[in-house]
Amino acid sequence: MTMRRLLLMVAGLVVVSAACSTAPSGPLPDPPLPITTAELEAIVATDSPSVVNVWASWCLPCRSEAPIVAAATRSHPDVEFIGLNVKDRDGDAAAFIAEFLADADMTHYGDRGGRIPIDLGGTSGVPLTFFYAEGGELVYLHFGVIDEPTMARYLDEIDR
Amino acid sequence: MEFTLLAAAAFSVAGFWLMLRWEAPRGNAAGCAVDLWDAGLTSVIAGLFVGRLTAMVTAGINPLTDPLQIILIRSGVSTTATVVATFAVFALLSRRDLIAAADAIAPSALAGLAGWHAGCLPTNACLGTESTLPWAWALPGSMITRHPVELYAALGLAVAAVVLAIWKQRGRPPIGAPASVALVAAGGVRLITEPMRISLDGGPVLLYAASVVLGGAGLVASYGAKRRRSMTRG
Known about the structure:
The complex is a heterodimer of chains A (160) and B (234). With 160 residues, chain A is an alpha/beta fold. Chain A has helices at residues 2-20, 37-44, 60-75, 90-100, 116-119, 148-158, and strands at 33-34, 50-55, 80-86, 107-111, 128-132, 138-143. In chain B, α2 (36-58) runs antiparallel to α3, α4 (98-118) runs antiparallel to α5 (149-170) and α6 (177-193) runs antiparallel to α7. Chain B is 62% helix and 2% strand. Chain B is an all-alpha fold and 234 residues long. Chain A binds chain B through residues 2, 5-6, 10, 13-15, 17-18, 20-24, 60-61, 63-68, 71-72, 75, 99-100, 139-140, 144-157, 160, and chain B through 2, 4, 42, 46, 49-50, 53-69, 72, 74-76, 89, 92-93, 125, 127-129, 139, 141-142, 144, 197-201.
């Protein structure tokens, strides 16, 4: 009896949560700008620390990670946050930005071929997060969904 | 759940189980009809589920259209929702014997929390703010040494768990007092260590403070009830 009640509560919670989740409305933002590996390396080699978050609209874990990235952009205004959208269509990428990264203070670039993360030392999988110190030294590369403590810890490493 | 959190979960379950086993021969749950192992694990799993759903809704992710996202615990759970749901489910499971069950499970819950924090070791996720203390260490490739803040929390909670278990056995505390002390210890350890922890939003400090206040109030109430009972008898 208790188990049945618990299952009913779980089902109810899922339905209520689904009802509370809303999709964005209004015009979509601009799609990510195309970029090359050399151009991205030049951007991260500036005088400010930077974080490159590799994402794609078809990557389900990227949706869960997006709020952490958005919160990080707000808490570390001195860090340059770059979103690198890979292997995606412009419309899908713009819709993803509107839905999950609208309040993130970051610039998005696009890499249709998905080659740049591999050139930078990563893999073809998403999500990935690169942490660069001033001057473009790679301090840490995180594979997969990043959690809030890890994001905060490595931001503290590069932002000083 | 993602594999990187499995170590923390395994340490946590191990801590919980070890304390239950240590207390069992000492009559920990004598007269308590609740199976503490089942109730404890069910409550925590249900709490995590609710906490994850809450975090998903807050992030605008629909759990019906993206059900697989529920297992991405690593990308965030709502601590407050998790704690409230865990207590609610535990209360539901042990409603006929709630206070006795809460007292019985209190040291094991603290040991489980200690295990969760100690679970940072396999993933090297123990470090907090900068420190030059002799035991501070650095992240791989870094020169900046840091407080192993998660180990401080693990140590504090483990000591609290053992002291509470011994006090329960030898001190004969009034009913409700061990659970109250556990609340104070759980919230207090997090409050003390929070300034050494690095986070994006400062952490749910109010929740920890509420835990300390609630535990303190419970402690006062349990001793007050004991005094009233002894006066009635006298």
